[in-house]
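Name: Iron complex transport system permease protein
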Amino acid sequence: MGNLSTGKRKFSMLCAVLLVLLAVLFFASIRTGTMNIPFPQIWSAFFGSDVGNQRMTLFEFRLPRIVLAMLIGAGIAVSGGILQSISRNPLADPGIIGVNAGASFSVVLYTFFFKGTAFLAGVVSVFVMPFFALTGAFLSAILVYLFAKKGGSVAPARLVLTGIGLNAAFNAATTVLQMKMDPQDFTKTLTWISGSIWATNWDYVLVTLAWMVVLLPFAIYKARYLNIMRLDEPVITGLGVPLEKERLKLLGTAVGLAGCCVAVGGGITFLGLIAPHIARGIMGTKHEFSLPLTALIGANILLLADTVGRVVMPSLELPVGIVISILGAPYFIFLLMRTA
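Structure predicted for Iron complex transport system permease protein:
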């Protein structure tokens, strides 16, 4: 009982620290960009004073982008945490097992045939882009699950290996399509695949928020099954847990989170790998604690990466996926060496 109380106190303290850090990053991000806006003018814009173009910059561009970065960061991070648990592989994330590649291929395929209309503003594009990205993500996940299934069950190692193979296949097909595009569409899709939070309007925020409000609480609700999945399969079966049924539900949740985030944020890799490891390192392996922390850590990391990308190259805005990859690749190699 004492250990549980201590764990809850530690969890509450860590959540408070991460929320404070997120607030600091929020104000730093809303201030910086191509045009830095002083805090007094930000205050005036939020509380109704007319400050011209700065008000539009804050409410129509920076604020929706910041909210999207936090939502996408939380979604991809939790998706990675779920995939690492159900595959029993600490190196798994949505990018490695093919979910991102499937979503990217679907969006590039759509762009190839409709000649760039995917990136036009409007009500239709708000639903078309997420629809195609989610279709590709779920198609990839279904193929991974079917190919990995043998004898009525899915071996975690086979799940990851199948995902890596499909990831390579989708990436190759995506490259072929890009080679046949005109330069303008090629540039757009390349930026999107690199991980660019391009959907900077409130319509995309609302669509993404709707997915997060449903899927994130569901993932945390299912945390007890993720705890059980650390055990050997005969033990899980002996406890009366429908392993394949729960694994499929959690896989669908992870794919839904990743697919929705990829739809508006592009192919952001390594975030789903880094954030769960940091959460488990500071809190332990109980998923009812580690998953909420994973979401907060993911939101912090992606908002930081997006802010850095805007500050380092303000005229071009370095895609957030590239910043995450610069940070994540060395960490991935470190984990690979430690696991080996």
